[in-house]
């Protein structure tokens, strides 16, 4: 059962620099969250990763800002996408206890306090939702052949072992398919891979270049939005599989470095083009 949830954190002492905090995301902070949820250390090292993270969230204060808003010093949000089915109950139970029993996390940049968490089965929550894989598949459209995705944090794909900072349809959706096959336990339509490779096109985009720092160093990327269209005649099962993958981006993120804050993605469902939400 994939889950998207938001953790509320506070720095105790000096706020760590954004670049240092980014490297800590997949280490101390998420490691603490995962261990409290009963996930093994080995699970965090799987490929593809069983989680995606992002901080700060769109609209949230950057933890590296020198002059935070009054009354909000040292507080920020971390968004976690958790994909491993077996660990969900422990994660939700522990997250629900944080308000009464906050957890201290020691990082190289200082001490953080996990104060609260937000998660909901409702679609009305912008960044928080949990849903069984079966329901995610059942709710996917079998008629839509267009999907618009918005990339909120720097996004980089990988081609031939090198960063590729453009929204290539094949790389994006085959990446989703690989993660789906690793965690969902649900086989999508035979022929979906071939349909993506041969018929999925980039029909519109509005992106900006963004470089970001990860453990491997600075990598080029992009933010913005892109619309993809499946051309030709295809059975409903192919369209349903494609739409399930586009919806899944909300949980798994896009491209490389999603466990270090890159590739935060949501599908745009409104008729508004690539401009945003």
What is the CATH topology descriptor of the largest domain? Alpha-Beta Plaits
Unreliable stretches covering 5 or more consecutive residues? 60-71, 271-277
- Give the CA-CA distance, first to last residue: 26 Å
Can you count the beta strands?
12
- Counted up, domains total 2
Assign the CATH architecture of the largest domain: 2-Layer Sandwich
* Average pLDDT over all residues: 82
Number of continuous helical runs: 7
Let me know the largest β-sheet. 6 strands, antiparallel
Label the structural class: alpha+beta
Q: Looking at the structure, what is the overall shape?
A: globular
Describe this protein's structure.
Mean pLDDT is 82; it is low at 60-71 and 271-277. A hairpin with a 2-residue loop joins strand 8 (157-159) and strand 9. Helix 4 packs across helix 7 and helix 5 packs across helix 7. The protein contains 7 helices and 12 strands. Helix content is 29%, strand content 31%. It folds into 2 domains: 3-118, Alpha-Beta Plaits (2-Layer Sandwich), CATH 3.30.70.1890; 132-268, Alpha-Beta Plaits (2-Layer Sandwich).
Question: What's a quick, concise take on this entry?
Answer:
This protein has 277 residues and is an alpha+beta fold. The chain contains 7 helices and 12 strands.
Indicate the topology:
Layout: E1 3-12, H1 18-36, H2 41-44, E2 51-54, E3 75-82, H3 88-96, E4 103-107, E5 110-118, E6 129-130, H4 133-139, E7 146-155, E8 157-159, E9 162-164, H5 169-183, H6 192-199, E10 200-214, E11 217-230, H7 236-252, E12 265-268
Antiparallel strand pairs: 1-3, 1-5, 1-6, 2-3, 4-5, 7-11, 7-12, 8-9, 10-11
